[in-house]
Design goal:
The complex is a heterodimer of chains A (120) and B (557).
Chain A: H1 20-23, H2 27-39, H3 46-68, H4 99-103, E1 108-109, E2 112-113
Antiparallel strand pairs in A: 1-2
Helix pairs in contact in A: 2-3
Chain B: E1 14-16, H1 18-27, H2 31-39, H3 45-63, E2 66-69, H4 71-86, E3 98-102, H5 129-136, E4 140-145, E5 165-166, E6 169-173, H6 179-186, E7 192-197, H7 203-209, E8 212-215, E9 235-240, H8 243-253, H9 271-280, E10 289-293, H10 303-318, E11 322-326, H11 334-349, H12 368-376, H13 381-394, H14 400-420, E12 426-430, H15 439-442, H16 450-455, H17 461-466, E13 470-478, E14 481-488, H18 494-512, E15 525-527, E16 544-545
Parallel strand pairs in B: 1-15, 3-4, 3-7, 10-11, 10-12
Antiparallel strand pairs in B: 2-4, 2-16, 5-6, 7-9, 8-9, 8-13, 12-14, 13-14
The chains are: A mainly alpha (120), B alpha/beta (557).
């Protein structure tokens, strides 16, 4: 496994549960959840909105630890456990010797194929 | 509509008719033994498949482990493989062995619903790479197993097809999300099953049902055709009743796949050989360095789980292993990291279920947006919660604080494993902090304490964050319910994992005097008088489906 140099913060910064959700209360939180639902193309009834507000209130504070206990500047982020290979054909470089092909050309000019006009 | 568990249902043992008992004689064989008997023509593939299909159809009424059982398809496949054997063709080591597949893995010969109402009745036009590999190996895929919708959940209750019961206690959860695969293997419906493991969905159900659940190194097994939940965390793994069977199936599944961008371009040596070497090794614990994470403390897990874990450590020490504490402080942040990354990726991956690309188009008279909303209202409650959590985390105001921070902690987890594996060969821990919880406790419109519910995955998540291989094997019981111990090996060293797991399996069985394979005779599967007219050769002629509720919530029974 690749070894990376990382540092941890020794002094956790204060927990900052400072999202738009945390900054508002009551009705505004319900509005915030409705806005999220709209962006996710999900229909919620009032009962579901209430449940999700309660779910967020309980769950979001645990994410504060992610920022407060790590020294961001010294740690690089990773998105995959292993490196991805590329499936894009335009990322695949194949080197080949152009001489045999050029030698077979009917006409060449300055090292390129020379072709007749396509449109008269 | 929210499912309410029927507590009036008798809590096992599962009753089997006399005819079914004969089927059980075959089903109790391991995959290894079954394959050998098929090769030697002591058993026909049709006999083997018939036994498993009949058992599955019988116990599924109690367990709800299968969403689909393809009896006719399986019978046809069995006949074809028997014909190949009759012609003297040399087939793969697992030829003729039945296998079930978690219903979020694509099969073009059976429906694939991911236990979601949004994919009800959908049969993909293609096979997942792993499905194709098992067909090429002449295995008989006969059923699709239940799960939490789109593998989102850790209890098996968030399925549009109803919850799965644990064969050891029908009032308890079989874990999740791979509840059906684990329950089916534990109840002898199949010797092998496939699962997907994003945060422990193969290993935690294995722990709850006294089965083996293995998750490979990230990239070792192709995910092409797995209905993606969180792509950077998803793995396809094996469920079995012993380590050797899991390793033999691994040999079928491991290898490079050009259709999966994350597939490792690596030749894998035989996992079966490694497991067999572990099984036959004498004094192999001597000199083995076993790591125990210093940050995992007794008060983080149930006392019964902790006591069992200490006992297993003692056994290994007595056998000559050196127990070494390793530091992994980032593991304490793994639950928050996982739920952040997973919900963000889930938000993105489930965007395709909109009635245009996938899912039924609903409310066609409405505008495009409202039509999509109608379709997506078929998602169950836990999927909705986590998709919205992802929407919150990916909002520009929160991105740095949430998603980017989680990606950095993921780097720390990888670093902690790298440091630990400089000192030890493998790391062991309990697989789950608790034994199977009651279904009643799991059912709720919303988890009353989501942070508590999600911490149930805390011991399995770190391996997914770092992509290292991990396996859960049965380690004993607490209050009558099974427990598991987890072995984690360095990235790419899956053979070492199977080797140690096989040795430890032998040691546990030897010391605890428990043969988990004899679950069937331990009183859980009992026999009853056969109904008039029933016989061992009874074979269902139609495919069976479990019905999804219309509104996408788990149905009442």
């Amino acid at each position: 496994m690749q070894k990376d140099t990382v540092q941890r913060s020794t002094v956790p910064t204060s927990a900052t549960h400072s999202s738009a959700f945390a900054c508002c209360s009551g009705e505004d939180r319900a509005l915030y959840v409705k806005k999220l639902a709209q962006s996710a193309c999900i229909e919620l009834d009032e009962r579901e909105v209430k449940e999700i507000v309660s779910y967020f209130e309980r769950l979001l504070p645990i994410f504060d630890s992610l920022q407060s206990q790590t020294d961001e500047s010294a740690i690089s982020a990773i998105s995959q456990p292993a490196r991805e290979s590329s499936l894009r054909t335009d990322d695949v470089f194949v080197t080949s010797d152009p001489q045999p092909t050029l030698a077979a050309a009917a006409r060449t000019k300055d090292g390129y194929f020379s072709t007749g006009p396509i449109l008269n | 509509m929210i499912y309410k568990h029927d507590t009036s249902k008798p809590n096992g043992p599962l009753a089997l008719s006399e005819g079914m008992r004969l089927h059980l004689e075959i089903a109790r064989l391991s995959a290894y033994e079954m394959a050998e008997k098929i090769r030697k023509r002591e058993l026909s593939v049709q006999e083997v498949v018939r036994a498993h299909v009949n058992l599955s159809n019988t116990v599924n009424a109690d367990l709800n482990a299968f969403i689909h059982i393809g009896a006719e398809y399986a019978e046809k496949r069995a006949r074809e493989i028997d014909a190949k054997l009759a012609r003297g063709e040399v087939l793969s080591p697992l030829a003729g062995v039945p296998v079930a597949i978690k219903d979020n893995i694509a099969t073009n010969f059976m429906p694939t619903t991911a236990a979601s109402a949004i994919l009800k009745g959908w049969t993909p036009p293609y096979n997942a790479h792993v499905s194709e590999l098992m067909l090429d190996a002449d295995m008989v895929v006969f059923g699709k197993t239940n799960l939490d919708e789109f593998a989102v959940g850790g209890s098996g209750v968030y399925s549009a097809y109803g919850p799965t019961s644990n064969p050891w206690s029908l009032h308890h959860s079989a874990g999740g999300s791979g509840s059906g695969s684990a329950a089916a293997v534990a109840a002898f419906c199949t010797p092998l099953a496939l699962g997907s493991d994003t945060g422990g969905s193969v290993r935690q159900p294995a722990s709850f049902t006294a089965t083996v659940g293995a998750k490979p190194t990230y990239g070792a097994v192709s995910r092409f055709g797995l209905l993606a939940m969180a792509s950077s965390l998803d793995h396809i793994g094996q469920c079995a009743r012993n380590v050797l069977d899991a390793a033999i199936l691994a040999d079928v599944l491991y290898g490079h796949c050009a259709k999966d961008a994350t597939s490792l371009d690596k030749e894998w040596e035989s996992m079966q050989d490694a497991a067999l070497a572990g099984k036959r090794a004498e004094n192999a614990f001597s000199g083995l360095k076993i790591g125990v994470v210093r940050q995992y403390e007794a008060d983080m897990v149930h006392p019964g789980v902790w006591d069992n874990f200490l006992l297993i450590l003692q056994y290994m020490q007595d056998a000559g292993a050196q127990i070494i504490e390793v530091d992994a402080p980032s593991f304490l942040l793994s639950v928050a990291t996982y739920y952040m990354l997973m919900s963000c990726e889930l938000f993105s991956n489930l965007a395709r279920y909109d009635g245009v690309r996938y899912g039924p188009r609903m409310g066609e008279e409405l505008s495009a947006i409202h039509s999509m909303q109608k379709t997506r209202s078929l998602f169950g409650p836990e999927v909705k919660r986590r998709v919205l959590l992802g929407a919150h985390a990916l909002a520009s105001d929160n991105y740095t604080q949430c998603y980017a921070a989680a990606q950095r902690v993921r780097m720390l987890a990888r670093q902690d494993y790298a440091n630990a594996f400089e000192q030890v060969d493998v790391i062991v821990s309990p697989t789950a902090p608790v034994s199977a919880f009651s279904l009643d406790a799991a059912f709720s419109p919303a988890p009353p304490n989501p942070e508590e519910a999600y911490r149930a995955d805390m011991l399995t998540i770190p391996a997914n964050l770092a992509g290292v291989p991990a396996i859960s094997i049965p380690s004993g019981f607490s209050e009558g319910l099974p427990l598991g111990v987890q072995i984690v090996a360095p990235f790419g060293l899956d053979r070492e994992m199977f080797f140690v797991a096989s040795m430890l399996e032998n040691l546990i069985i030897d010391r605890l005097k428990i043969n988990f394979d004899l679950f069937a005779t331990a009183g859980k599967l009992t026999t009853t008088t056969a109904p008039k007219g029933a016989s061992a050769s009874d074979f269902p002629t139609g495919d069976k489906h479990t019905t999804a509720s219309k509104d996408g919530d788990t149905p009442s029974k």
